[in-house]
Amino acid sequence: MEFHPDKNKAEGAAEKFAEINRAYEALSDEETRKIYDKHGEEGLKQHEQQKGGGGGWGGGSPFDDFFGFGQRQRRNQEQTTPSVTIPLELTLEQLFKGETFEVTYVRQVLCLRWEMCMKPNQECQGPGVRAVRQQIAPGFVQSFQQRDDRCVAPGKMWLNNCSECPKKTQTEKIDLTIDVNKGMRPNEVITFEGVTDEKPGYKPGDLIFVIQEKEHPQYRRDGDNLYTTTQVPLVKALVSIEFFLHINPAS
Predict the structure, then answer these.
(1) What is the rounded average pLDDT of the residues 135-162?
(2) By CB atoms within 10 Å of each CB, which of 57, 123, 127, 129 scores lowest?
(3) How many angstroms separate the CA atoms of 45 and 104, rounded?
């Protein structure tokens, strides 16, 4: 902790911390500790080159989570609300010809003035996550994450009983056009990106329609081929026979 770059700005402190970190990484891992005991530092260098790795605190220190520095250095990953998957049952004729559907989807969206209902709070690390610091010994402070639904974004907390936005979300109906292309197959998907429920601090998830083919009374599909079973009298089978088959659009 004495040489951590966030605490010690003196010349040479970063290099010293990197050296300490490298030693900790090598000795805390059973495999690398054995390599060091047998081949020394040169053996560790060869091992790192083979794995394409390297020491140093620049790639993240094993002490960071314990002292709480790593949380400030990590990039905030954008979170999304759950995606929604809906089966879309279609007949063989619809898949053969292609078709367009107009559907209405009901979702929750943020109220218009939701940003007015947030207040600064540096403990908030992201949606639903708050950082808590606890002193575990003189000079040692542990930082850990705790669930807190009031946190809606890094550094921002939801203000309860906000008159600008009594509820975080409201119901909205959106119209969508589903285009089924000719020849689409079962289990293919049609995706509408970012149209599911909205939530403060989150990116909306995707709405996914999965094509399912209804059973046809006469034909069976295998890829681009259609199969059917037909009874043929023996006499006609001996002298040959021709069949003219078609798919009835009304069936």
Answers:
(1) 82
(2) 123
(3) 61
